[in-house]
Hints:
Layout: H1 58-68, H2 72-82, E1 88-89, H3 96-109, E2 113-117, H4 136-150, E3 155-159, H5 165-168, H6 174-192, E4 197-202, H7 213-221, E5 229-232, H8 240-253, E6 258-262, E7 300-304, H9 327-335
Parallel strand pairs: 1-2, 2-3, 3-4, 4-5, 5-6, 6-7
Helix pairs in contact: 1-2, 2-9, 3-4, 4-6
Amino acid sequence: MPAPRSRPATLLTAALALTAAAACAPAPTAQPESAPPHHPAGVGLVDESPFWVDPQSDAARQVAAWEAQGRNSDAQVLRRIADRPMALWGPAGDPGPEIRRARASARAAGRTLVLVAYNIPYRDCGQHSAGGARDAAAYRSWIGAFADNIADTKALVVLEPDAVPHLVDGCTRAGHRDERLQLLSEAVDRLKRNKNTKVYLDAGNPAWIPDPKKLVDPLYKAGLDRADGFSLNVSNFQPSSAGREYGAALSKATKGKHFVIDTSRNGDGPLQGDRSQAWCNPPGRALGTPPTDGTGDPLVDAYLWVKRPGESDGTCRGGPPAGKWWPDYALGLARRATD
């Protein structure tokens, strides 16, 4: 998989001088949640979720490599990642081959694909995950190919992490705002032409845009009324309890829209203390609730691992570039997991 997948960014608000993005908003002082009952690593994980498990993920390849090297204990721990569903981030350029691979595998397994469309022009305001389509025409072509290759496969798409919150925090330049909203709205419509595709527009996280009402107007202009809902906490570490509370408030303001929460790395909540770098490869974090559509909350359609655990947030704290696999960090997340 290519690098632009990790979702760190920097909040360009001089008054706060804090780093923020879907993976980089300052962290509230929330306590980690109690976890569901523990399962031995690698045991029965696939059958507990309706979502597709990627047999070619970096984690799966790392498990195989460690087993070949005799590192069986570490390999077994890492199965807490490798044997669970994670989102596939559509590659830049031509997303078709990778989505077709995933589509075939998911259909054979009778599972639902979880995908991320992350290629909006002027992505991430030039920060760690900068890039995206070169212009509006290129994006329309890319999202068309993205949707075409899903076809009628059962899929859930998280649409453009950060794109709407960056409109609210002032990061996105004024000259790009209307175009971005138009492209997002068109993307919702294109994806929803697929009869089995659900679409969730990204809405950041509770620590990024503290007042959810500020997101309502841009979300609707981005097509929320035709989407299935919104996503929260993509690549971030906010506790699920905070996400549920924030999501419920945003749902109320958007006429009852449902939402999904990224729980990939929120098992111990956000890093306390160094708030300016809490988003970027924070030490001591843990895997969160495994992916499931059995959330026990009528507004929360799923807990998902949108961020692939073990992929770097950027070149901070000794990490590789954004989106690159970091086995030592992955192993730490898995070791500290309680489920």
